[in-house]
């Protein structure tokens, strides 16, 4: 029950998180949470602005004795990734997230938790509402649509903010201080194809890939997690090579920023091959499960009879499609030569839809190096164009270049060491943070990113560590106390 969450410490933060998680807030569907945040600021009697794209800005004056400190922008995004397990009955448009405590972790029942970036939003709300926390003047910036295009950050105009320091609360490791991030671009391949009637001698089968962990397509792209679209394509390719399998439908993956956990397909094969097709496909399934058993112990691959589909894909297009998906880069493309263990460039083959004569394939390509990002995007473009697809490159956003001489970085590094007896990990990340975009209109703002431990973001396995949130909260309070004078 969410009442259990409200008793956790720091109570003011967890209470705000519970309030927030009662509000539906999918990317590009943030109307309810925008009104919620607007009412929150106005009810506190604080200056509250909703800009032309839907970002909410709430300004709170400094507490006594901190009037001469640099104004701080505290920033988090309002939207969350909506993902649920297939067997979970849940309506994200009307229901609040159902949370529970499991040991040292807060989880959600069968859905994403919204800790990314709800814990950051709740932190800022708790500071705005507080009457006894010392802090400089604060400009709270709640952006929209971070997860599917960063259009909120892109639409924020210069001149709305006056702060000299920006604290982005969207990092997911509590010992990390973020100083840079990857940029990204959406790669979308589409084409129409001719459908033909399924011959009478063919029978229908369904194939389902499920049980994969999924996860964040930036932060976890290097972990060797299974990609349901790639796994499905192996099965379809093998079925065609050996049994003349014909594709009727494919429905795999979901959002670009989530590693795909599930895929399903409807296919047709010659009735005479029924027994050997099932046997060989299940043998291949077992081989794939053995390959991935360490990272994906719950992977399931099902093969089952269904009603014979009425229509199947044109043979030539099918051959091109399966070869293109096989060839398309998925995962790490290049590691950074300058920052140890940092993924420089990657791609997530996020979504494959085949139905009713239309193909759509959606990828998210990320890189901290602009030229490498475009190199991989063009590699994917060429791969899909070779099979007759039209390819669009959209949603391009810049990375955030690290500034190792950042004044707030030096202050926070020392504070972290004083509080925890060890040095923080100062790093750039492979996720897309809004700092790079915000810096375009606010180039003089000193930016940093940090947050509590959140695991499994963008998947129903998302969870937030309770002890880490308490550690992070103390860090936030110490930072606000130690903001330098103007």
Any low-confidence stretches, pLDDT <50, length ≥5? none
Strand content: 25-35%
**pLDDT averaged over residues:** 96
Question: Rg, please?
Answer: 24 Å
**CATH class designation of the largest domain:** Alpha Beta
Annotated CATH topology of the largest domain = Aminopeptidase
Instruction: Calculate the terminal CA-CA distance, rounded to whole Å.
Output: 45 Å
- The assigned CATH architecture of the largest domain is 3-Layer(aba) Sandwich
Q: With helices defined by DSSP (H or I, 4 residues minimum), what is the helix count? A: 12
Number of extended strands: 23
Sum up the overall morphology in one term.
Answer: elongated
> Could you name the CATH homologous superfamily of the largest domain?
Zn peptidases
Residues in helices, as a percent range: 25-40%
Category from helices, strands and their pairing: alpha+beta
Into how many domains do the coordinates divide? 2
- Sketch the major β-sheet: 9 strands, antiparallel
Structure description:
This protein is α+β, with helices and mostly antiparallel strands and 486 residues long. It has 2 domains: 2-181 and 399-481, 3-Layer(aba) Sandwich (Aminopeptidase), CATH 3.40.630; 185-397, Alpha-Beta Plaits. 30% of the residues lie in helices and 28% in strands. It is built from 12 helices and 23 strands. It has helices at 2-5, 11-20, 31-43, 115-129, 151-155, 228-243, 274-291, 315-327, 370-385, 407-420, 435-441, 466-481; strands at residues 47-50, 56-60, 72-77, 99-102, 105-108, 138-143, 165-168, 176-181, 183-192, 195-197, 202-210, 246-253, 263-270, 300-306, 311-313, 331-335, 343-355, 358-367, 390-397, 425-429, 446-449, 454-455, 463-465. Strands 9, 11, 12, 13, 14, 16, 17, 18 and 19 form a 9-stranded antiparallel beta sheet that branches. The protein has a 6-stranded mixed beta sheet with strand order 1-2-6-3-7-21, with helices on one face. A hairpin with a 5-residue loop joins strand 1 (47-50) and strand 2 (56-60). Helix 2 (11-20) packs across helix 4. The longest helix is centred in the middle third of the chain and has 18 residues, at 274-291. The mean pLDDT is 96. Residues 208-293 form the Peptidase M20 dimerisation domain. Keywords: Hydrolase. It comes from Mariniflexile aquimaris. This is Aminoacyl-histidine dipeptidase. InterPro entries: Peptidase_M20, Peptidase_M20_dimer, Peptidase_M20C.
